[in-house]
């Protein structure tokens, strides 16, 4: 019989279609084929992008020239603009403001065909450090309240260019999803005086049925009520509400666990399209006892259709206990 | 006189753009598909390309990437009725992105900028 499961943070219900019990080999993944042709993100083509706001490379590396190993550039055709004031105003019962924001692209590798999941740990660490550096920098702008960091991999997950990249958008508002997460975790904290995410980590470590992998600082688990088959959450074991508050050794451990998690996912379902999103407290907020930063990795293996849009329920054909077992046992 | 290759599957766009651009003193060559544009590229040797995105057959983004592979210095202006293709990072290979409108001032200004 199918099972309805409730996410303890958001109160969101999902349907685990247990009888379908999909295994990794049951999913058909469309292999993304490189279209070839000119790539605006490749070394040598730096002049086709706006000037970089951050780059890591050799010590003698000159900005906007080849020799970089990671590069961050503003969006050439941004949906939100960086200059101007918010000019918030009401329009009857409606609210509006100017479309102020920053949209940047993190080019994770100079190699066109190098996938994020194949990056050596040190280079993955660069990516996570770049996220931190840019969040800290954009956080100095009082107009911005939140920086959303995400990655789309594969056509089905919304990536239009095969060259490995992630993106960030600095926003003048805190996105609704984060507001709901903060409010859900605050309600739990008010009732139990404990962080819901810390409780999830403790329980999952104890039962060990949904844990994918862990190290001293981090744990990757298949959440109890996942929206997508093989969904994974990467959480710091030590309570922290802000991504940027981590020390260097934590970022190294994050790169290690992320690298392992992505290799496990890729071993189960090669070339699987996915999105990952960093969830952290809003910019400039004090450390929060009830909120816990984390990264959600969502493989794109099912279609969102009318039922999901209408009900807000997701139907997941792979129980997370099965997904965790496959991921844990994957040869990496 | 500077030569422009206009690539769009809609003939009405050719009529409208050609008239306005010829008035500005440019020679306008037409291609009704991406494939035709790539064939004409080496024959016409345009100074600038105006390229639609949503076309049957090869789409404008793929044509753009092929054109830039052949000649990175050739200015290409993407011209689309859709804003959302701006989110396609492959569109960054272009030198400008103009949303189609009945007022061609923005397009003409971009053409002037890249041909000056």
Molecular structure report:
The complex is a heterodimer of chains A (332) and B (116). Chain A is of the alpha+beta class and 332 residues long. In chain A, 25% of the residues lie in helices and 22% in strands. In chain A, the strands form three sheets. Chain A has a ten-stranded antiparallel sheet, sandwiched between helices. In chain A, strands 1-2-15 form a three-stranded mixed sheet. In chain A, strands 5-6 form a two-stranded antiparallel ribbon. The radius of gyration of chain A is 20 Å and the shape is globular. Chain A starts with a strand and ends with a helix. The model of chain A has no long low-confidence stretch (mean pLDDT 92). Chain B has four helices and five strands, in the order βαβαβαββα. Chain B has a five-stranded parallel sheet with strand order 2-1-3-4-5, with helices on both faces. The A-B interface holds A 35-41, 45, 48-49, 76-77, 79, 105, 160-161, 165 and B 61-62, 64-69, 72, 86-93, 97.
Name its key features.
heterodimer; A: 332 residues; alpha+beta; 10-stranded antiparallel sheet; 3-stranded mixed sheet; 25% helix; globular; B: 116 residues; alpha/beta; 5-stranded parallel sheet; 5 strands; 40% helix
**Shape type of chain B:** globular
Distance between the termini of chain B: 12 Å
Radius of gyration of chain B: 13 Å
Question: Could you say which overall geometry of chain A the principal axes of the C-alpha atoms support?
Answer: globular
Radius of gyration of chain A using CA atoms only: 20 Å
Category from helices, strands and their pairing of chain B:
alpha/beta
Total beta-strand segments of chain A: 15
The largest inter-chain interface, given as chain pair and residues per side, is: A-B, 17 and 18 residues
Largest sheet of chain A: 10 strands, antiparallel
Q: What characterizes the major β-sheet of chain B? A: 5 strands, parallel
Low-confidence stretches of chain A: none
Order of helices and strands of chain B: EHEHEHEEH
Q: How far do the termini of chain A sit from each other?
A: 34 Å
């Amino acid at each position: 019989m199918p099972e309805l499961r409730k996410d303890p943070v958001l109160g969101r219900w999902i349907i685990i279609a247990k009888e379908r019990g999909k295994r990794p080999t049951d999913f058909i993944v469309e292999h993304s084929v490189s279209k070839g042709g000119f790539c605006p993100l490749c070394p040598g083509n730096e002049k086709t992008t706006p000037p970089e706001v951050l780059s890591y490379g050799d010590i003698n590396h000159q900005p906007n020239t080849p020799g970089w190993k990671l590069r961050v550039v503003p969006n050439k055709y941004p949906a939100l603009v960086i200059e101007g004031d918010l000019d918030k105003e009401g329009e009857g019962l409606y609210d509006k403001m100017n479309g102020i924001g920053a949209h940047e692209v993190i080019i994770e590798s100079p190699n066109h065909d190098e996938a994020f999941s194949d990056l050596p740990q040190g280079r993955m660490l660069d990516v996570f450090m770049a996220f931190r550096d840019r969040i800290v920098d954009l956080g100095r702008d009082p107009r911005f309240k939140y920086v959303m960091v995400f990655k789309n991999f594969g056509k089905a997950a919304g990536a239009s260019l095969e060259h490995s990249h992630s993106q960030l958008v600095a926003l003048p508002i805190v996105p609704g999803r984060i507001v709901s997460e903060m409010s859900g975790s605050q309600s739990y904290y008010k009732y139990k005086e404990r962080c819901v995410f810390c409780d999830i980590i403790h329980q999952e470590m104890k039962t060990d049925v949904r844990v994918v992998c862990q190290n001293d600082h981090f744990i990757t688990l298949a959440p109890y009520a996942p929206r997508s088959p093989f969904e994974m959450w990467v959480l710091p074991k030590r309570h922290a509400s802000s991504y940027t508050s981590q020390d260097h050794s934590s970022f190294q451990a994050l790169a290690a666990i992320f690298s392992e998690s992505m290799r496990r996912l890729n071993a189960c379902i090669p070339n699987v399209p996915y999105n990952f999103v960093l969830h952290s407290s809003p910019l400039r907020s004090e450390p929060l006892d009830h909120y816990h930063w984390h990264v959600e990795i969502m493989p794109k293996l099912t279609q969102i259709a009318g039922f999901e849009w209408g009900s807000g329920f997701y139907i997941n054909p792979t129980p997370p206990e099965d997904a965790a077992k496959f991921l844990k046992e994957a040869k990496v | 006189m500077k030569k422009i290759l206009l690539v769009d599957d809609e003939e009405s766009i050719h009529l409208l753009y050609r008239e306005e651009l010829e008035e500005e003193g440019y020679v306008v060559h037409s291609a009704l598909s991406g494939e035709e544009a790539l064939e004409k590229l080496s024959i016409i040797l345009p100074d600038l390309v105006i390229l639609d995105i949503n076309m049957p057959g090869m789409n404008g983004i793929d044509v753009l990437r092929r054109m830039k592979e052949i000649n990175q210095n050739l200015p290409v202006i993407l011209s689309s009725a859709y804003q959302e293709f701006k989110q396609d990072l492959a569109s960054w290979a272009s030198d400008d992105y103009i949303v189609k409108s009945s007022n061609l001032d923005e397009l003409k200004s971009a053409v002037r900028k890249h041909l000056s």
